Amino acid sequence: MAAANTLVPAAATINLRESRDQHLRRDQVVRATVAEGGLEKAVLQLGGRKFLVETETPLMTGQKLSLQIVENSEGVELRLLTFSLSDRVRQVLHLAGQSFDLLPLLEELAAPNHPLAGALSPAARDALQGALLFFSGQTEGTEGRFLKSLVRVLGLDLEQRLQQDPAEAPLANLKGAVLELLDRVQGQDNPTADRIRHLHQLIEATQIFRARLNEDGFLLLPLPFPFLDYGYLLAERHPRGNGDTPRSGGMLSLYLQLSSIGALNINMLFDQRGLTLRIRTESRQSMAFLEGYRDELEQRLQPWRLAGLNFSSDATAPQQHLVNLLSGGRSTVFDTRV
Hints:
This is Hook-length control protein FliK. This protein is an alpha+beta fold. It has helices spanning about 15-20, 85-90, 100-110, 120-135, 145-155, 160-165, 175-185, 190-215, 285-290, 295-300, 320-325, and strands at about 5-10, 30-35, 40-45, 50-55, 65-70, 75-80, 220, 230-235, 250-260, 260-270, 275-280, 305-310.
């Protein structure tokens, strides 16, 4: 348990009589569920009642909270007890492996006659339009800039950028726009509102996953593109060689799930010899199919000084590998014997 933040009831007030009716006592720790998440306001389900609260801690729909009851002259305050990063990972681990499925929602919201179109700020509309162009492949750029743009477009660095520059517009990315959409659909029960809430959960869960893996020297980047069922890029800052000693160079791995060939792992090791590439599939049939392109691959990869190209049929499902890493089971992402 690291810190405590106060959640002050906003629209609904918890007075002393109500607290007695619900058997709430001073300093008591109770459990609540976030019925409607938000950056500054949220709706909490406490027992059989819901309360709109103001919060300094962003809360995610479905999140389970521990609250301490604190009495003052005006009624009861709810003090949010926050936990370690590992605790937060466990709360959202069930979201690992779920697809963002962005394009259908972005295309729906881009329709000029959509009821939410006129209710959004210009910054939010621009962010949604920019995300639509980006994920539909209508933007260009080099690989490095493309990956950096992916983080910015999704808003995975939103809180960090706001901390560095509080005056920066928070809605100039997908997460900022989704936060505004959450306010617009609060209390609504329809498929669009449900998809917006789910997207918000996935973005915040991805931020938590990135923070957790960063502790172990990994950089996680989701790849929510329509041609993938699910996938992510994993960069290891300090690859390990034989004897668990640091290896010079870098390692990148793609963990992908495709409807055509199933799970696909692509491990890329860069060192003084050049690039060593290992392609792993989940079946021998898929391996044989990809191995048929060996000559073409070797030719295309020569500018990177290809040192080795290997195929195998022992791919790990992306979701399984991610859960393993998040659970502390640091597994080698590259077989050094190859």
